[in-house]
Design goal:
Elements: E1 7-11, H1 16-27, E2 31-36, H2 52-58, E3 66-70, H3 76-90, E4 95-98, H4 113-141, E5 145-149, H5 168-188, E6 194-199, E7 203-204, H6 206-211, H7 216-222, E8 226-227, H8 230-241, E9 252-254
Parallel strand pairs: 1-2, 1-4, 2-3, 4-5, 5-6, 6-9, 7-8
Helix pairs in contact: 1-8, 3-4, 4-5
Length: 263
């Protein structure tokens, strides 16, 4: 699928990997609806960091355009409004990037019911609802690509590994997202839609820095962690955005393996 002139939704697009994905898609000529929980103020000098306003400004001059849309993926009405906004204003929907997520950490036996429910609602139910609202538009087109941003935390990691320690609800919710990916890939295959999961790996975002302040320097120096820039994060995402059910679907892949073990 040629991306020039296509329309994409990217959730969690105000910062980190979502910001990089929105800019990468716009750089490829895509009209991007960048969604996050708040817009942020576009100040006269410069918008605040980690806001949709800043992403829109950063995208100026790219082949595609970025439009901000306030959306909390924990609220279905917001998801419905976001999807309708994209289709009504731009006439189609070609790519959905389910990137929004929360990264809480709690002791394994200290997770409250409310904390568990919130992790599952944002990280697993939110993507499902986004697919449920977006897929009918893609089915009518007989084309579309859905990309769920997952994590290595969904797999087994020994205690002492960053992807294990105190991230029970995150790991379980991402494991659910992986199964959602493979399930919906099979469900939507007959309509021509691709559904794949992409794990970004260790990315040095502001959220990562806040969660692991002592590890940032060592992670960056080791080369394990990478910056959340369109140049670094974009190529794997753009490849998946171009896929259909006939070319690649139902796969769970890792950004660091792009050009090596896949495609």
């Amino acid at each position: 699928m040629d991306l020039i002139g296509k329309v994409a939704i990217v959730t969690g697009a105000s910062a980190g990997t979502g910001r990089a994905y929105a800019l990468a898609l716009a750089g490829a000529g895509v009209t991007v609806v960048a969604a996050a929980r708040s817009l942020g103020r576009l100040d006269r000098e410069a918008p605040a960091r980690n806001t949709l306003a800043e992403v829109v400004q950063a995208g100026q001059g790219l082949p595609g355009r970025i439009y901000a849309q306030v959306c909390d993926v924990a609220v279905e009405a917001d998801i419905a409004r976001m999807t309708e906004h994209a289709v009504v204003n731009f006439g189609r929907l070609d790519v959905l990037v389910n990137n929004a997520g929360i990264y809480p950490h709690h002791p394994a036996l200290g997770v409250t019911t409310e904390e568990w429910d919130l992790s599952m609602r944002v990280n697993a139910l939110g993507p499902y609802l986004a697919i449920r609202h977006a897929a009918p538009h893609m089915i009518r087109q007989r084309s579309g690509s859905i990309i769920n941003i997952t994590s290595g935390s969904a797999e087994f990691r020994p205690k002492g590994h960053l992807a294990h320690d105190d991230f029970l609800t995150y790991g379980v919710s991402k494991a659910a997202l992986n199964r959602l990916t493979t399930y919906m890939a099979e469900e939507l295959k007959e309509h021509g839609l691709a559904v794949n999961g992409l794990s970004p790996g260790a990315v040095v975002t502001d959220t990562f820095a806040a969660s692991f302040p002592d590890e940032v320097a060592s992670v960056t120096a080791s080369g394990w962690g990478k910056p959340s820039t369109p140049e670094v994060m974009g190529p794997a995402l753009l490849y998946l955005a171009r896929q259909s059910a006939a070319t690649m679907t139902g796969q769970l892949v890792h950004t660091d393996e792009f050009g090596k073990s896949w495609p």
